[in-house]
Amino acid sequence: MRSVKVRGVRLLGVEAALGAKEVDNYLTCKLLFGDKAEAILKTTGILKRRVADEGETSLSLCVKAAKKLMARLGTKPEEIAGVVSVTFTPRFQMPGNAQLAQRELGLASDVAAIDLDHACAGYPYGLYVAARLAQDLGGKVLVLDGDVQTRLADASTAALLSDAGSATLIEPGGDEEWKFAFWTDGVRADDLKVEGGKIRMDGFGVFRFVAGDVSKWTEEFMAGERVEAFVPHQANVYMVKELAKQLGLEDKVAITGHEVGNCASASIPVTLARTVKDGQKRRTLLVGFGGGLSAAMAIIDA
Amino acid sequence: MKPTEQAFLEFAARTLKVEHPTLDLAYGDVPEWDSVMQILLVMKFQAEYGVDVPLSKVPELKTLRDFYGMLDE
Predict the structure, then answer these.
(1) CA distance between the termini of chain B
(2) A243, B55: Cβ pair inside 8 Å?
(3) What interhelical angle do A97-105 and A58-73 show, nearest 10?
(4) Is the Cβ of B31 closer than 8 Å to some Cβ of chain A?
């Protein structure tokens, strides 16, 4: 497995903005699956989900999170040298969310605005691009990761999906070393895709990918590394807990899927926003996986 | 102690909600055994027989015979 290290960047903070409506997932399951509702709840572990209001978009949720983060950290718009957006549900096909965020956040005109089209594996990709950008530009970079995906749900995915946006701020400096690795298996692209305006998923195909390949690659990626916290994509609470057990990280895993559902790639920063404590950094393993099929991993100080 | 084949099949019938399954019944053979039921079957199998099924093993459990065979390990 090829991996890459970036030395000399640091995380300043993470904030999240969830879709406005909190949904009792039992009611969704009962409506869609009748007597099978309890089985669905038990196997997914998702008790509540968040759904965007009509006016909310991936852009508006990310901008809301970014404003909250910048206010908390006292960061001025002109300090931001780059903005990286990660989403597969952009506000418009063109312009991208990163360009629109420049306007919405009042960032300088010379900001580097980059859009990454990625689903659930996207957050480590966004962090990697942002880390490189921060070093090359010598300034702070925002990662905006969010999706409004419940509008793409059908009966097979509705009990899993949530909407959320997030903002992560990093800056160059210090002596932290972040490690990244990426994996893609396009042969299995049909296992999870958007087609005809709906997310189509072969649930067992994706499960097989996580149980076999993602688990194996993560073991290889973290071999010899110190890991103090584990924040995986919150695809399904059962699967996440079992993945943690397989990796020997069951006492270090952060779980938010039961409370907020599967927020696509934003599920990692949504979880970080709840677990990162200022001034108490831990070597944190991040693992995203999903459409592609693809996976991306990082070990950062968070 | 390993349960009899009959006792295991009764457990499978209760869990999958299918009548008279055989050890050759496989994932996808009946609509009741879908990806959700696969996970539920694993969870109930672990609880019923006190067996630990590692995540990497779950996709390999394709028939009831595969599950029953795990009780030999």
Answers:
(1) 12
(2) yes
(3) 40
(4) no
Domain ranges of chain B: 5-70
pLDDT of residue A153: 94
Cα end-to-end span (Å), chain A: 24
Residue A243 has pLDDT above 80, yes or no: yes
Q: Which residue has the tokens 């699956």?
A: A33
Whether residues B55 and A242 touch (CB distance < 8 A) is answered with yes
CATH architecture of B5-70: Orthogonal Bundle (1.10)
Cβ contact (<8 Å) for B43 and A42?
A: yes
The reported pLDDT for the residue numbered A4 is: 97
Question: Distance between CA A268 and CA A47 in Å, rounded?
Answer: 18
Give the residue-averaged pLDDT of A140-148: 98
SS3 of A172, please?
A: strand
Whether the complex's predicted ipTM surpasses the cut of 0.90 = no
Partners of residue A216 in chain B, C-beta under 8 Å:
56
| Arithmetic mean of pLDDT, A71-88 | 98
What residues in A contact B35, CB-CB < 8 Å? Answer: 202-204, 207
Cβ of A36 within 8 Å of Cβ of B56? The answer is no
Domains of chain A: 1-302 (3.40.47.10)
How many of the other CB atoms lie within 10 Å of CB of A269? 32
